[in-house]
Design goal:
The protein is mostly beta strands and 131 residues long. 6% of the residues lie in helices and 49% in strands. The strands form two sheets. Strands 1, 2, 4, 5, 6 and 7 form a six-stranded antiparallel β-sheet that branches. The chain has a two-stranded antiparallel sheet with strand order 3-8. The longest helix has 4 residues, at 15-18.
Length: 131
């Protein structure tokens, strides 16, 4: 018997609404709705120039981000990396990161695993990337 789940990421709740980040951000976190045990996936859409108001890192989870539309840049620890469409970037656990959309906005897929301690695996630092 097969074990799988099919779900359109746009049908997953937009978490940005409940955290007051809309309309500049859409954030569809599908780990739980898909029933994932060891990995996570999200779809994130950024308004032009929008930057997350916090940096974050994970105790156990490694993440891969794929920029599927637009442009942007990512601050990883003390380095800023420019990203363009279809760039993929891996960020190791324990590494602080943040994303900022380019002038036309951005659409990003994020994959992470192992999920470790779930949502409590993340440490968020408000204002971490300030110019």
């Amino acid at each position: 018997m097969s074990d799988y789940t099919v779900m359109n990421l746009e049908d997953v709740e937009d978490s940005a609404l409940k955290f007051g980040l809309a309309p500049d951000l859409e954030a569809h976190f599908a780990r739980e709705p898909l029933g994932c045990r060891a990995t996570g996936v999200s779809l994130q859409r950024f308004a032009p120039g929008f930057r997350f108001p916090f940096g974050h890192k994970h105790a156990q989870q490694e993440e891969v981000y794929v920029l599927v539309n637009g442009s942007g840049r990512m601050k990883i620890e003390d380095e800023i990396v420019e990203l363009r469409r279809w760039d993929a970037i891996r960020v190791a656990s324990g590494t602080m990161r943040n994303f900022e959309a380019g002038p036309d906005g951005a659409e990003l897929l994020a994959f992470g695993g192992p999920t470790g301690g779930g949502p409590n695996d993340a440490e968020m630092v408000p204002g971490w990337w300030a110019d």
